[in-house]
Amino acid sequence: MLHIQNNVSLKSYNSFGIDAKAAYFVEINHESELNELFKSLNDEHHPILVMGGGSNMLFTKNYQGLVIKINLKGIAYSIDNKTVKLTAAAGEVWNDVVKYAVAKGFGGLENLTLIPGLVGASPIQNIGAYGTEIKDIFESCTAFEIKTGNILSFFKADCVFAYRESIFKNALKGQYIITSVTFNLSINTEVNTHYGAILHELQQRNIQQPTINDVSDVVAHIRVSKLPDPSTIGNAGSFFKNPIVAKSVSNKLLLNYPDLVFFDVGNNATKLAAGWLIEQCGWKGKVIGNTGTWKNQALVLVNYGAASGQEVYDFSVQIIQSVKDKFGVELEREVNVF
Hints:
The chain is of the alpha+beta class.
């Protein structure tokens, strides 16, 4: 029997550690409970927020609706020749699935080591790091349709993936709850070491023919050296998206800023490194009140213990304006704000 709780603190459920409260809160441990839940809801339970690991959200106020915490568990796989289909339930911890795949020798997820959060959020955000995005290894996902109670499958072409975007963040927002994700992995895969920081660290370790385990270890090392641990200091990882601009814009910026960090993404467009832009504006390691940017990575905003969500949000507003004033580029938040 499902138990919907009242007035529940979300502090332990979001990686920023913001002490907002949910008017209603329920945990889903089995897929069948979703149908049971939605048959029992009434108007007072709306709006509805589906929560996984709480690693990509910032609460600026109490949530006046129902928070649904997804705890679905399970990992399974099948192998056909050298192709692996690995399916993980939405409530599995993302890095646990990465470690599981690497230990089995299944290649494809290793560049995404130590990304916080749960599996269910991965296709919604099209999460990515160090030269790999979910769209690169996504096979399909299953999702509960809130309106009908049906479980439907979505394949890669259905998801309309883009940089930190998918159909679940846009046209189908709020209509589905992802219950599992299947990844298209491989055995004896060619590892992706094109990202500069990975290549540099492999050279430092004198590794000339890296395995997926080597790449996973290196990515973990890089992330730990640059990013704060959410279990010890509240943060949501990268707070801003890397802005994508026309190549003409980046060429113009290069005239004044020859050290500009950017990546060619095709279609006459360039991705700028948001962390570099923020750092050039003097924000790296800066602290105002109870919040600030991380000392080793300006892209990460942190809660130094007692920050409110509104305080973090206001701090981000100052950063956005500062970057816009200096570079003429407007940053967009990657974190979902409530």
